[in-house]
Every structure is written in structure tokens, then in C-alpha cells.
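Technical appendix A lists one of the benchmark inputs used to test multi-chain prediction within the project. The record comprises two sequence entries:
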Amino acid sequence: MGMAGSLTHDVIKGPPPPPIDRGWGGGGGNDGRGADRRASFTGLFVLLAASTMVFAALTSAFVVRRGLSDDWASMHKPVLLWVNTGVLLASSLVLDLSRRALKAGDRSKFNLWWSAGTALGILFLIGQAIVWRQLKDAGVFISSNPSSSFFYVLTASHAFHLLGGVTALVYVDVQALRLRLGPAKRTAIDVTAIFWHFLDGIWVYLMVLFYVWG
Amino acid sequence: MSAPVAHAHHAPQGFIRRYVFSLDHKVIGIQYWCLGLFSVFLGMSLSLLMRFHMVNPSVPVKWFATLWPQAAAGGVMTPELYLSLMTMHGTIMVFFVLTTVPQSGFGNYFLPIQIGAEDMAFPFLNMASFWTTFIALVVMVAAFFVQGGAPLSGWTAYPPLSGAGRITGPGEGMGQNLWICSIAIFCFASLMGAINFIATTVDLRCKGMTLMRMPLTCWTWLVTAILGLLGFAVLLAAGVLLLLDRTAGTSFFIPSGLLISDQIITSHKGGSPLLWQHLFWFFGHPEVYIAILPGMGVTSHLLSTFSRKPIFGYKAMVYAILSIGFLGFLVWGHHMFMSGMNPYSAMAFSLLTMCIGVPSAIKTFNWIGTLWGGKIQFTTAMLFALGFVSLFVTGGVSGIFLGQPALDLYFHDTYFVVGHFHMIMGVAAIFGMFAGTFYWFPKATGKLLNEFLGKLHFYLTFIGVYAIFTPMHFLGLVGNPRRYADFTNVEFLGKLIPVHQFMSYAAYFTAGVQVIFLINLFWSIKKGKPSGANPWNSTSLEWSIPSPPPFDNFAGVHPVVNHGPYEFSVPGVARDFIMQTDPPSVASDRSSH
């Protein structure tokens, strides 16, 4: 809960809080970074809403397709999925440690943790590729059964989102290592981290879906 | 890149950065508008070919054979070619005209200015959004040129026809794949646009521009963006599943035991075509409001301006827009009354559909209330806005018939439906676009469109569209099915051919008079009367700056808003309008009188 608390805190307050002198009431003037940061968060949450809709649509298709027909057979799921889940959760945890280090002013620790989080994110993607490989070797293809069809579609949709996330992680990392992490980049850090946590949550949700109904 | 950074420098020099890959919301708005203009003429040409074929099903035309050596061998269209024209007409009109111009075209140009911002929140994303839309259009048009031609399954792409592959028809090979890819690309573009519209409206309003001081156009653009955001995400997911059914051997939508072209399909089993219908219409119904809401915004704005009266019931209008947006997501089932759905579900969908009549009626009554007792100025822009109200009511009333499951049983898949949705979604939205074009053209170019040509164009178009689409309702009552390429061999339909002939002539006529608009457009760009900053004596922010606006809209000045958007004919004030940026003292003068 502590982590979620800090996340919320960062979203609202920002580390350190840049001046936000206008907003819903239209009270301020159109002048610079405060607006920029707010708009970035709004844009991010709009994006998250759209991604949620994609997974909601696929879930409803999943439930309907499973309920409508008698050809659904639960598919074999590689154990590696659990390892990948651990890796992804760890990446989120490490990213938040990294943000705390930055808040505490410890740049080198931030760089270290952020690089570690990025590496874990890439590791998760590699792990997912290996899961696909294992399924292929076990003869479970996308067309084998509706359960495997949905497994491939959902994991691919998630991985597609993660590719975007990893790109952002790497971008921040490169900026950090090149010592280009001015206050303006804080927004990029927060936006990336929140997006990543969101994908983490989606993955946990997908695991529940696969193991309970898949 | 964010707005302050992008516009912190001088306007970019060089043709490519200024007019092609521009980050300026105004240029991007015009790009969208031009893309829509191209698309609307393309879509209209397809409909003319269809109207010609329906009344001359066996008359050979030489150049048909040149264009389609296989599908129109000997110059006579095959039914499959007719279906592909219908599919592409619907798709191009819905996605690349109705979705693109009112929202992305006008919205891009005028949303930032009307709320006092220098640009959209994410200019780079904005540019990416336009060029992604452009690629989607290229991919869509490419479907004409691949083997087998364009797909046959309509803009709704119902499986199994759209999912079982080449065996279901000539256009169902590569053509249908390209269709799905194009729509998927369009979904991404639309998502990028929605992010920009929402973030801009929420975060970039200038000082004093509270939500309840936004012009109604901005409200409709905001709600439309939310609808697009939620709807297109679902369409994207559905499109991916459909593409996999076609290319990866999955069975999301394709059931077992299908018999197509005398062959039993064994490669699929267990899928549900109804699943597609649910996913598609969950997007498809909000899409109707995506097309019409911005038109409603423009109409509200113009009726108030040209009646020289405040909009009647501003808050009620805002809540009506919001409730139309919300209810729009709860009524998708009314497209599926005939799908064998549970009658109780149908009743629920029907009741919810009737509910949308309430905010729609609120809007209509408020429009009439705005006009009532006003000093109405019948400019061309105003005429098109009035035309919008007329078409919206006509098309809306037939919607109440179709929303009843018992009546829909009869009307479903007849010309009644075609008449209904062309009135309300097609022509009404197009009238909204013409209204916006005549109203805002002076702002974008500094020149007025010619009023004589404009009025001539309006009256002929208004008569033309009613002549095309009114008879369709009667054809539907008689039982004339839609999507048929040829009625001549069906006895009871054969007698209706004269009505179809009338509609075809009306269609040629209406298409012909659009040339007047094109002439007006190009002539006025070159030789139109200079408009000045505020030719209509309007109140909103775009009229407080020069025409055309400077690169960063307000030339470095941060506008401050002191008034609501529709303060017309305020008693005791010298002019009959108060601009939003006028000092507060104008209003206090009023109170002292």
C-alpha cells in the first residue's frame, strides 16, 4: 500500500511540484511547464482509458466466445509465466524505488534502479517470447483452440503495449545516463512509470483471466 | 513535444515544414478538411455509379469495362462490383468524411483558438495523427487496385462474409484484408487525435475560460473525442480478431458447418458472427454521434450568432451533449433486433434508444427557442445550420420508428433504414460541415465566400437531398430491400423502378450542383471580398484575432476571457454583441443602465 500511496502522491504533487497556476477553472495564463505537465498527465490517463477499452473488449469477446460454444478446451500454460510475472512485478517495484531515489536527490541511485527496471522490463518481453516458443514446441498454436487464440491475442496485445513502455524506459535511461535529466524530464519519468505500473496491473489481470477461465 | 516548446520559436520556414509536415494545428486542420473534401467526392462518385447501375442494370457502359475488365466485363457491372462500391462508399464516407472533417478538421483549427490556446497540447502527436489518417486512406483506396478488388461486406464488415476469405467473393481476398488494416490504422490515428483534444480542452484553456464559458462547439468536440477514444479502441480489438480469423485460422467469428459457394467450410468452427456485431456496434453506435455531435455544436453556435440572441438554455445544451454521449454507449443492440436477440434485451435497448430522444429533443427545442423572436440573418452559413436542424428532425423522427423492435422487424434491411441514416448521419452532418465552412472560411483565409453562389448551392442541395432520400422511406414501407444490385427481375420491385429513376436523377442533380461549391471555393480563395477580423460580429475568441490568424494564434498575447460565449443583444450595450475577450466593464455598463 505504501507504494500505491507514493504513486498517488507523485501524480498529484509531482517530484518536486512544478508550478501549476491554472487548470479546470481556467484561472491562470497559458505560460509554460505547469500546463505542459498537466496536459501530459491528462494525455496519459486518456491513453490508459483507451488501452483499458482494448482489453475490456477482448475480455468480453473471451467470455462470450467461451460461453457460446462447447469447443473451448483449457490450454497448457507454461510455468515460465509465473517467473515472468515475478520479473514484471519486480520491474515495477524497482522503478518506484528509482523514483524515490530521485526524490531524495540521489541521482546515481536513480540511474542504477531505473536501468535495472528497464532491464527487467526487457527480460519480461524475452520471457514472453520464450513462453510462445514453448507453446509452439508443445503444439499449441493460435488456431489450436479458442483458449489458445485468446492467449496469443491477449499476450501479444500486452506485449505491444510493453514495447511502447520499454521504448519510454530506455529513452529516460539514456537521458539519465547522459546527465540530461533536467526538471523538465521529471514529467517523462512519471508518465513512463505510471504507464508501466498500469501494464503491470493489466498483466496480473490477464494472469487471473488465463488461470481462472482460460 | 508540447505546445509551449513547439511554438516558442518563429514559424517554421520552408514548404515541407510549413505545409506538409506541419506542427501547426491550423495547417493540420486544413489538411484534414482537404482530405475530407477529396474523400467526399470519391464517396459521392461511388454512389452515383451505384444509382446508375440500379436503374440501368443491364446497359453496357464502355468505360466500366476499361475500369474493371473483370468485374464489369462487357461494360455491365456484376452484383459483386456493386457491393464493393457500396462497401467503399459507406466506409469512405463514415470514416474519412463524417469522422474526419467535423472533428479533426474544424476541431483542430478552432478548438485551440476558441479556448485561447496557442496550439494543441501535443503538436507532434497531432501531425502524426493526420499522416496516420492519410496512410489509412491510402490503404483503403488501395483495396480497389488489388486482385479481386474492394471488399463486399459493407462498412459494417459482418462475418462470415467478411471473415471466411476469398471463397465468399472476389473482393474478400486481399481487398478485405486491406480494409481491416486501414480501419486499424485509422483507429490509431483517431486515438492520437482524442488524446490531443481531451488534454487540450482540459488543460490549455486560457484565463477566464471556465468550462461553462466554452462555446458549444468545444463541448461537442470534447465529447466526440471521448466517444472516439472509447469506441475506436473496441473497433481496433474487433478488427484484430477478424483479421486473425481471415489469416491465422482462428475461429472467433466463423461458425462451423458453413456452406459457401457449394463448399463446406471445415477450417473454422465454433465462432460467433453475433460476437462481431456486438463489438462492432459498441463502436458503431457512438460513431453515429461522433459524426453528428460536432455538427450540433456548429449549428448551436451559428443559430445564436445569426439570430443575434444568446443560445436558449446553454446549460441544458451542455447536459444534452453529455447525455447523448453517455446514452450512445448503451444502445448498440438496436442495430441487432433481427439477430435473434432475446426480446427482453431488445426491449431494454429499445427503451434506452427512446431515451436518446429526450436530449435530442431538448437540443431541437432549444434551437427553435434560440431562433424565436431573433433578428435572423439568412447568411449561407445560417441557411446550412437551419438545414441541419431540418434534416436532423426528419432523420430523427424515422429513428423512433426503427427503434421499436416490432416495427424494425418490418423495416430492417429495407430502404427505410437507408433513408433514415442518410438523413441524420450523412446529409445532416454534411450540412453541418458546409455551415462550418461558410462560417469559418473568412477566418482561415481572410476572404469571404461568395454569398450568391453560396445560397444558390444551399437551396439546390437542400431540395436535392430531400428528393433523393425522402422517397427511400416510402420504398422501405413497400418492402424494397437494401443492398440489391438489381430490382428488375423481382416482380413487386419492378414497379418501383420509376421511383428509383427519380432518386437517381435527383442524385445526379445534387452531385452536379456541388460544382457550384467548388467554383465558389476556388474563386473566393483568389478573389473573395476581404473579410476583416470579425465579419459576422461573433463573440468567440477566434474572431478577436486577425484573419488569417498569426502563427501562434494570439501573437504572444495571453487572452483573458470575461464573458460567456453567447452574449448577443445585451440590453444597454452599444453593440449587439459582447466578445468573450471584451473587458468586464462592458457588462457593468449594462448593470448601471
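The longest strand of chain B covers residues 259-260. Residues 91 and 390 of chain B are 25 Å apart (CA to CA). Comparable benchmark entries are summarised in Table A2.
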